[in-house]
Specification:
Elements: H1 2-8, H2 19-29, H3 39-45, H4 62-71, H5 73-82, H6 98-103, H7 105-123, H8 131-138
Helix pairs in contact: 2-7, 4-5
Length: 149
């Protein structure tokens, strides 16, 4: 209900929708998910970024770095350059430099697609009105609308 009020008031923040991932999941599942899932769940599942703050946030997930690389490569490579300012510094911990993450781009995106499919299948959420059951299964830590971290 809150999501609906925010949207109708014109206050919905950016969703960072990732069309490529959405298309890949739809093809794999053989259905158009926008016809089956509420908009707010689509926004959560298919965002390439869950926080609207710094482009070099320490809390970013691997797929968020790949989303940044694909949508704003200049910011990704700027963050990667910052890794070289300190000794053995990496945003994601030792041995996980942004250069290494960029090299694993296809693998990380494939894992994201599998994860989304598994979440949808596990939830058995299609046209049900029971959004709470879906949220419990999804175990959302950030709604995709605000930072929260």
């Amino acid at each position: 209900m809150v999501y609906s009020i925010i949207k109708h008031a014109g206050l919905k923040p950016p969703t960072f929708f990732w069309q490529e991932i959405y298309d890949r999941v739809c093809v794999a599942m053989g259905k158009d998910l926008k016809a089956l899932l509420p908009e707010w769940i689509i926004d959560i599942l298919f965002c390439w970024r869950t926080r609207a703050n710094c482009f070099f946030c320490f809390n970013q997930r691997l797929y968020e770095w790949i989303g940044l690389l694909e949508h704003y490569p200049e910011l990704f490579w700027r963050a990667e350059a910052l890794e070289h300012l300190g000794s053995e510094f990496c945003w994601n911990g030792k041995g996980k430099s942004l250069n290494d993450i960029a090299a694993r781009k296809d693998e990380i995106k494939a894992n994201l697609v599998k994860s989304i499919i598994k979440t949808i299948e596990k939830s058995k959420f299609e046209t049900s009105e029971d959004d709470k059951a879906f949220i419990d299964i999804l175990a959302v830590t950030s709604c995709g609308l605000v930072c929260g971290k």
